[in-house]
Amino acid sequence: MSAARPLSPGAVVGILGGGQLGRMLAMAAARLGLKAHIYSPDPQSCALEVVRRHTLADYGDEAALDGFAREVDVITYEFENVPADAAMFLASRRPVMPDPSVLATTQDRLIEKDFIAGLGVATAPFVRVDSPAELSRAIETIGRPAVLKTRRFGYDGKGQVTIRDGTALEAAWRAIGGRPAILESFVDFEREISVVAARERGGRVECFDVTENEHRDHILKVSRVPALVSPAIADAAQAIAETIARAFDYVGVLAVEMFVPRAGETAVMVNEVAPRVHNSGHWTLDGASVSQFEQHIRAIAGWPLAKPVRRGRIEMINLIGEEVEEYARWLAEPHAKVHLYGKAHVRPGRKMGHVTCVSLDPAGHI
Amino acid sequence: MSAARPLSPGAVVGILGGGQLGRMLAMAAARLGLKAHIYSPDPQSCALEVVRRHTLADYGDEAALDGFAREVDVITYEFENVPADAAMFLASRRPVMPDPSVLATTQDRLIEKDFIAGLGVATAPFVRVDSPAELSRAIETIGRPAVLKTRRFGYDGKGQVTIRDGTALEAAWRAIGGRPAILESFVDFEREISVVAARERGGRVECFDVTENEHRDHILKVSRVPALVSPAIADAAQAIAETIARAFDYVGVLAVEMFVPRAGETAVMVNEVAPRVHNSGHWTLDGASVSQFEQHIRAIAGWPLAKPVRRGRIEMINLIGEEVEEYARWLAEPHAKVHLYGKAHVRPGRKMGHVTCVSLDPAGHI
User: Fold this and answer.
1) Architecture of the domain defined by B125-185
2) Cα(A313)–Cα(A321) distance, rounded to whole angstroms?
3) Confidence label for A364 from pLDDT (cuts 50, 70 and 90)
4) Residue A301 pLDDT > 80
C-alpha cells in the first residue's frame, strides 16, 4: 500500500521505536493535530510519555503488528534497525514511509556503500571481509590505518575497531565478533559534517544547513551550524544528500554523515546514511523555522515541506550519561534551550537530553 | 502544602483541565523531562492525546481527586473556573500553583475588580448589580453605553450584554440569566492589549512583550506583537502585570488584559486577569526564546525563569470553527507555523488551532 492520500488532521501516525527520536516525532505530529501511536518492546520507552496510544510488543509479534497497523493511518520509524520482516509485514497493511526497501540497504554497510558508490558519490575505499583470511588480503589493499566494521547493527561506535600499525588482525576480527564486515580506509578528515534532508511525496527536497559534528567516544557530542566549510563544499554536501534521497525515492527525513578530507584531497566522502531523523538535526527544533521532526511528519503525511530558515549561529550539545545532572545549570543559561528525554535510568554513554544555544548575532559569537 | 522543593526531571505535573492550554502545557513539561498527568471530566479532551497518564472524572469526585493527587508532584490548572472546593481539596495534599486563593479572586468579577482597584490600578468604572432595581440605579451612576457582566463563569463574551441607548434594562437583566453581576462603563478604547507575565517561586517576574489583541464576536482572533503603543504605555502595562503578580504572591504565568483609552484619557485600564497561560501568549511558542508554557512549567517546578527575547514582529491568528479547514493553505505559507489542537469536533466559535507568522525583518513587514 503506498498510493496514500494526504492525511487529515486527527489521523494517526504509527511510529516504530520508543526512544527520544520517536518522542520528538510524536510531539511534532501532535503540534500539527495528528495523533501518534508508539510501537515499542520496552515499557520504559521515553516516547510513551507523550502519547495516549501505544503497543508494547516485540517486532516479531505478528498479531501485535497487525493490531498496530489497524490503529494507524501511516507508519514510520525512528531507528534503522527495525527488522525488515516487520517492516514488510506492516507495508502490506498500511503505507510505511520511508519504504522498507531503504532499510534493506542501510542496514547493511556493504550494500549501503555499494549503493552510494553506484551513485558516483565518494566514500572511503572499502573491501568486503567475511573471514580472517579475507581481512589479511583486505588490509593489503586498503593499508593501515583502517577500520573494520560489522556490516549490520552498528551504531555509536559499536561493532567497529580501528586497525593501526601494531594491531593484530586476528584480535580485530574477534573484537567485532567474527561477523561479516567491511574494511574501510581510515579517512584523515579535517572535519565531520552532516546534511539532514527531507523529501516530500511529490519529490521536492529541502535540505537543512550543513552541520559540523564533534564526536566523543564515537558518540555525537556537539553539532555546530553553519559548518565551517566553503560554500562549494556545503553545496556539494547538500547535493549528495539530495542525490541519495532521490535515488531511494525517499519520503521523509534522512541524514547523511560525511567527511571533509584535509586540504589537497578531493571530494566530500559519505560515511553513512541514517534513514530517519538524526541527532545532528536536533538544532533545528530551536534554530530553524521548521524542525527536522516536523519536516518528517509533513512528508509522511503527504503535506508540503516547509522551507527551513536558520535563525542564527547554533550549537547543539548532547547531555550524555550523568551530564544530564547539569540540567539546572543549563536552565539558568540565557541562550540555552533545554531538552530532556525523560529516560528512566541514567547509563554511561546514554543520550539523556540536549541543549541548543542560538546566537542571533550575525557575527556568530554565542 | 506549599514549601515544595524544586522538582527533579521525571517528576509528574498534574494539570486540571484537558483543553488546548493543558495540551501545550503538557508538551512544554515533556520537553523539560517532566511527566504530565491530565485531570479532565471529558474523555474527548484534546490534551489527553499528548500524555500517558490521565484521570477522567468530575471536579467534584473526591476519590478521583485524591487518587490524582497521589500520582503527581505538583498541581496546576489550565482554566480559571476550576471549582474552588476541588482546588482546596487538592491543596491539602499537594502543592497547587498558582495558589487556589487566586482562583477565589479571579472567578468573581466583582472581587477581581475590587482587588485591582485596591492596588491603585485603573479599571473601567464599575458597580455591583444584584437585582433589576440595582441595575436601574447603576445605569444612572455609570451612564450608557455600559456592559452588564455576570460575576462568575463568563468567557469569550458569554454572560455579558452591552446596554446601549435603546436597550431595555429588564431584557438585559434576563439576557445574563438574572444572576449577580457588575455593570461596567463601556470603555471607548483605542486598542486592546495584554501582558503575559511569569513569576517564579523566588519572586522574580519576567514579562513578555506587550501584545495587541483583536477580537471578533468577543473571541480573540489576532494577536500582534509588539503592540503599537508608546514605550511609556508598554512600560505601564508591564508594571501593572508585575504589580498584580506580586500582590497575588503568584507562581506561574498570568495574563492581564487591558484597554488603552483614546488619546486625551489617562491611564491604561485593566479589563481582566487570567490566572493561567493565555491565548494572547501563544505567539511565544514560535516568536520568543522561551514560551509562556515553558515559563509556567519552570515556575511551578521551582526552576528559574528564562529571560524572554522576542524573535521579530509577530502575528498570531486563531483558527476558529471551520477556519481550521484552512490548515492546508497555512502549511504552504512560508512564514507560518501551524498549530492544530486535535479537537474531535468542529463547532462554531471553538478554538481549533492557531497560526504564528514571524517576520525576522526588523522593519516588521510580514
Assistant:
1) 2-Layer Sandwich (3.30)
2) 26
3) very low
4) yes
Q: Do B344 and A10 touch (CB under 8 A)?
A: yes
Q: pTM score, two decimals?
A: 0.95
CATH class of the domain at B12-96:
alpha beta
On chain A, the residues whose CB falls within 8 A of the CB of B360 are 309, 311
Give the span between the Cα atoms of A164 and A145, in whole angstroms: 5
Return the domain boundaries, chain A: 12-96, 125-185, 189-359
Q: Min CA distance, A305 vs chain B (Å)? A: 8
ipTM above 0.90, yes or no: yes
The CA distance from A25 to A36, in Å, is: 8
Q: Give me the pLDDT at residue B3, please.
A: 54
**Angle between the B292-301 and B20-31 helix axes, to the nearest 10 degrees?**
70
At A362, the amino acid letter reads P
What is the Cα–Cα distance from A194 to A256, expressed in whole angstroms?
5
B63 to each of A90, A168, B43, B67, B82, how far by Cα in Å?
Answer: 43, 68, 18, 6, 17
Share of chain B above pLDDT 70, in %: 95
**Chain mean position to CA B115:** 17
Contacts for A268 with CB less than 8 Å, ≥ 6 apart: A122, A193, A233, A236, A237, A240, A258, A259, A260, A261
Element (H, E) at B340: strand B336-340
Q: Which residue bears the cell 479547514?
A: B325
Are residues B339 and A31, on separate chains, in Cβ contact within 8 Å? yes
Q: Rounded CA gap, B182 and B172, in Å?
A: 12
Cβ neighbours, 10 Å, residue A41: 15
Q: Which residues of B touch A359 (CB under 8 A)?
A: none
Going from the C-alpha of B170 to that of each of A234, B160, B161, B173, B175, the distances in angstroms are: 74, 14, 12, 5, 9
Grid cell in block for residue A198: 527531507
CA nearest to A131, candidates A179, A163, A79, A71: A179
Query: CATH homologous superfamily for B189-359?
Result: ATP-grasp fold, B domain (3.30.470.20)
